Amino acid sequence: MKAKIIGSGMCLPPFLVSNETIGNFFPQPPTQSWTPKWVEERLGIKTRVNTFDFNLGVMRSGYYDGDNAFTAATNAIKDAGLEPKDIDRVLYATSTPEYLIPDPACMVHMRLGLRSDVPAVGATSVGCGGFVYIMDIADSEIRSGKYKKILLIGSVSVGPYLQAVNDIEDPKEREEQLLKNIVNAYIFGEGAAALVMEACDESDDLGPGITHTYMGAEGHSNPVIFEAGGSRNPATYQTVKKGLHRFNMSLGLVKLKGPEIFMRVVSEIIKKSGIKLDEIDHFIVHQVNYNLLKAISESLGIPFNKVEVHVDRYGNLDTATLGVAYHELKCSGRLKAGERVLFAAIGAGWQYGAIIMRV
Questions:
Q1: Are residues 346 and 292 in the same domain?
Q2: Is residue 229 part of a domain?
Q3: Which residues contact 224 (CB under 8 A, 6 or more apart)?
Q4: Is residue 240 part of a domain?
Q5: Where is the chain membrane-spanning (predicted)?
Q6: Which helix (H) or strand (E) holds 353?
Q7: Pairing mode, if any, of strands 224-225 and 248-249?
Q8: How do 52-53 and 58-59 pair as beta strands?
Q9: Do both 174 and 213 map to the same domain?
Q10: Is the Cβ–Cβ distance between 153 and 72 less than 8 Å?
Q11: Residue 313: inside a domain
Q12: Phi and psi of 13, rounded to 5°?
């Protein structure tokens, strides 16, 4: 028995923001980096989805993390030809839950009107690797025979964080906090994606479904941290003033260590599967930025036309990246029965994984 994808959906708020719009909103950086021209040349990101209205200085309503997740999930269930009552498990990965408690999966469960005997749980600290982790969990749970139809959701929301900083009344403090958030504003996009997976009786490599997985973690040299709000640094006036309630990402560490881990993950699953790299038809991998994605693909010898790319348009979609890429690939008509797809992602704490699936 294997797990296969039978439905997909996504929700990208209809607001593409240019580098110039962000550059005009933020204070001038103290160095030549993090300007509109620098971002396009060094990162290859031209626009990104963002629900914050940079002209009015407010976030557009109706596009919070749970809103986008609910819409994507609804679309995926419909695409699978199912109704909410048919789902018997929910796995939800997000780095930007609306609340620390309750679990965001429970909130989406409620909005979808799922049965009370349907368990729902979220992965809220894995970061960009969250979606490949819940795919692996879904595969294991379906193979065990415990669940038949599992709903997977990945989402990210950055607009509310910009709203919070923009609302600071003291002009000097506001400017300081804006400069601390300029990196996230340029890099990340917003949106959600969902998949519905079910059991497939065909157990051989030729039938549809997940055939191989490779997962791991390396907690040292962590590149991303959200320092305050947990039990080590509970929220206080001082933690807010210091700007500790945001994603603090070491881009230097990501660039230094990320490619090595990513290439190792892809190499290991290829080795484990016995499949040649050129036998993979499509690569759906996490997209930190366009230039890094292209460089890693070239280092691995992967033709770039086999790699699904949207980071230059949507920004880094974090846990929604893989789901959005799969849905767009499917809707483009380029995904054919019998083809192989390789999913791979790396997250905070260097939690990583790769999956090979037959369509």
A1: yes
A2: no
A3: 127, 247, 248, 249, 250, 347, 348, 349
A4: no
A5: none
A6: strand 351-358
A7: antiparallel
A8: antiparallel
A9: no
A10: yes
A11: no
A12: -55, 140
264-308 pLDDT, tens digit per residue, is: 999 999 999 999 999 999 999 999 999 999 999 999 999 999 999
Tell me, yes or no, whether 262 and 341 share the same domain: yes
The letter for the amino acid at 132 is: V
Question: Do 136 and 102 fall within a single domain?
Answer: yes
82 and 179: one domain?
Answer: yes
Which residues touch 172 (CB under 8 Å, ≥6 apart)? none
Q: Structurally, how many domains does the chain consist of?
A: 2
Give the per-residue pLDDT at 96.
94
Tokens standing for 351?
A: 């939690």
Which of 200, 231, 264 corresponds to the end of one domain? 200
Q: What is the pLDDT of residues 43-60, one digit of tens each?
A: 999 999 999 999 999 999
Q: Which domain holds residue 324?
A: 209-219+249-308+318-358
Q: Please, are residues 7 and 149 in contact by the beta-carbon 8 Å criterion?
A: no
Read off the tokens for 174. Answer: 């506001």
Rounded distance between C-alpha atoms, residue 305 and residue 286, angstroms: 16
| Maximum pairwise Cα distance, the chain | 63
Residues 3-21 as b/e (b if ≥16 CB within 10 A, e otherwise) read bbbbbbbbbbbebbbebeb
DSSP type of residue 198 = E
Rounded to an integer, what distance in angstroms lies between the CA atom of residue 80 and that of residue 296? 34
